[in-house]
Amino acid sequence: MNIPNLLSIFRILLVPVFALTYFDGGEYSGLRAALVYAAAAITDVLDGYVARKYNLTSALGRVLDPLGDKLMAFTVLVCITVDGLIPIWAVVVFFTKECLMGVGALLLYKKIEDTPPSNVFGKTSTVVFFAVCVILIVGKGFIQPFWADMMIFGAIFIMLLAFASYLAKFLSIQQNTKGSVQRKDDGDGE
Q1: Which side of the chain, N or C, has fewer Cβ within a 10 Å radius?
Q2: In the predicted structure, residue 22 carries a pLDDT above the cut 50
Q3: Per-residue pLDDT tens for 70-84?
Q4: Residue 141 region, left (φ>0) first, then alpha (ψ -120 to 50), else beta?
Q5: Taking the mean position of all CA atoms in its chain, how far away is CA 189?
Q6: CA of 128: how far to CAs of 121, 125, 131, 144, in Å?
Q7: pTM recorded for the entire structure
Q8: Residue ranges of domains in the chain, CATH in brackets
């Protein structure tokens, strides 16, 4: 077990801590929940940095890192939806997109035994999503519903742009591996 994987496990353990903190009803529960979310985001940045810098990437890390990210993001969305800060369609869109990306990653892993790294669209989407959620959590009770909807709509729009980018990469890899398998099969028959 290496340090990046331990950081990912710590991030996964922060998921229930976030939910309990968010709904504890204390005077500064929103701020404390945002700090838990920020701690999770910091571990996400750190685990990737340490894994790349010290060549500590692993198959387990390629599962734990996105699992921790998605569990935290989904939990945050569910909590702020249950609290009435954003509409339920945001959770449905997020969950559907993540399921599709998970299936795509699994298919690619089976085909090429790897998954493509995140790109600028994915990273931008993550930062925007984090910022919007923190603003909604900390500003609970102060932000008008219209502005909350506009912020989450903007974050979801950027997330869907990132999804389109990953879908294009997925289709490109599928096409390239299909062509190389066909060429290999054509060569074997001669």
Answers
A1: C
A2: yes
A3: 899 999 999 999 999
A4: left
A5: 44
A6: 10, 5, 5, 19
A7: 0.83
A8: 3-178 (1.20.120.1760)
Which 3 state secondary structure label does DSSP give 55?
coil
Which residues, 6+ apart, have CB-to-CB distance to 42 below 8 Å?
none
Half-sphere exposure (CA, 13 Å, Cβ side) for 109? 11
Backbone angles phi, psi at 130, to 5 degrees: -60, -50
pLDDT bin (cut points 50, 70, 90) of residue 123 is: confident
Share of the chain above pLDDT 90, in %: 62
Q: Tell me which H or E stretch contains 40.
A: helix 29-53
Residue type at 98? E
The per-residue pLDDT for 42 is 96
Least confident of 12-26, 131-145, 163-177: 163-177
Alpha-carbon gap, residue 79 to 23, rounded angstroms: 8
